[in-house]
Amino acid sequence: MSFNAIRYAVTETFLSLKRNGWMGLASVATVAISLIILGFAVTLVYNTTKITGNIESNIEISAFVNTAATAAQVQTLQNEIQQLPDVKSVSLISKEIALQQYQASLNNQVLSDLGGSNPLPDKFVVKAQLPEQVAGLAGKIGSLRGIDKVNYGQGVVDQLLSFTHWARWVGISIIALLSIASIVLISITIRLTVYARRREIQIMKFVGATDWFIRWPFLMEGLILGIGGAVLGGIVVIYGYENLVSYIQANLSFVPVVKDQGFMVILAAVLLGSGALIGAVGSMFSLHKFLKV
Amino acid sequence: MFIQLTNVSKTYPNGVRALIDTTLRIDKGEFVFLVGPSGAGKSTIVKLLFREEQASRGQVMVNGKNLSRLRDGRVPYFRRNIGMIFQDFKLLVNKTVYENVAFALQVVGASSKEIKQKVPAVLALVGLDKKADFLPTQLSGGEQQRVCIARAVVNNPPLVLADEPTGNLDPETSWDIMKLLLDINKRGTTIVMGTHAKDIVDSLRKRVIAMERGRIVRDEEKGVYGNEF
Ligand SMILES: Nc1ncnc2c1ncn2[C@@H]1O[C@H](COP(=O)(O)OP(=O)(O)O)[C@@H](O)[C@H]1O
Ligand SMILES: [Mg+2]
Question: What is the Rg, in whole angstroms, of the alpha carbon atoms belonging to chain B?
């Protein structure tokens, strides 16, 4: 492109932005709204993923040792469990500690009633590497000699797993639909801009302007509108999210929320990129039709 | 040979046969009237020469280019050698006279120096140098057509195509426009003009190609509009 062509494209872009002021504002607002929804959907999905991930990774297997086992046998069992595949951690809660915990929860009444004997078994608390491995691992631990009973909240794990998968897919589908919707909206808005300038395009074709010469100002206009909307939407999403996080942490502290600078930077970049892409794709769609003169 | 149509037919997608097996030759520097009733195919010939439409059959040669072999990407460069004049002027209403003409140079990548030289010169040629800063809405129809002509010839093209350039003008203004086109033709520019203006055709005695229902029915030097329609 020659210097004059570049200057022409830049001048035309800004003239057109100025001339189509309200239409440009409408485009920017549409991009902004779409990206705000997109941004909050992304943060919501990110949060639920993180939270369910936390819950998932906290699923524990309780393995109760036969009360007849000796301390040495308990130690051997712990080593055996440690060596099973998929095990993340094993910790022993001895019957003495279990009793103390139990006692504490019942205000020290029980100890005297039991007359000094301890009916509680030793217990291993085992964590799996991945939630999907919990059921299989529990089975293996249960079949070890010396283990009486294994408990891992069987139904709960499966329910939680199916719920988190379901929640992720719903979230991803919502984002996909919204992305398509905003591309369609932008392309319609820019089509209006192109339509308003169809005379100019026609005359340019008649006097021998190349297609790319005609496209550039529209492409730049689309990019500027898209990026403008993304900046606006990004500010709302990031500022709004930070405030929401502060509010939740202050007033609803039992709800875990993610506060993560790295995530915010990535989110901002994604929103800007989406805005630019939406603007470019939208204007190219719209120009395609009008270039046939 | 400057323009050559050889056995050209044009059938539009809706099935209308606008041009049927037409052969026609126009030499450099000629002034040619295309006449005939509405729907005869005059505009279709103009559009074929400008490569706005493509022939369904036959060969269209313009300025040494076979238009059916011309790639889409080359069409803009081909059109830079043709000036188009329209019945409805096709001016940009939000640009001044000067800007409308400069626009045609800008979009083909002319330098600002070139623009500053050529635009005032061509505006003087069409007699609008005093109205360079007017908007089209502030001009009469004849003046708007002069802007259109200035824009068409500012690049000094070897061929000017005019489809009913006086169709929207009163007789007196039409004559002013015709004088301007004759001047341009005298400078060596080939002009092909579709028209319904019987008076003008009859008194100028240029080459007349008469068309009817997609065929050339008469082609004569120093011709007249004719009575067949
Ligand atoms: N784009 C088009 N699509 C379909 N039919 C067309 C188109 N342009 C012209 N025609 C038809 O082709 C015939 C010739 O039209 P045209 O060349 O415009 O005639 P003229 O300029 O002599 O009045 C007419 O019947 C017209 O309706
Ligand atoms: Mg016509």
Answer: 17
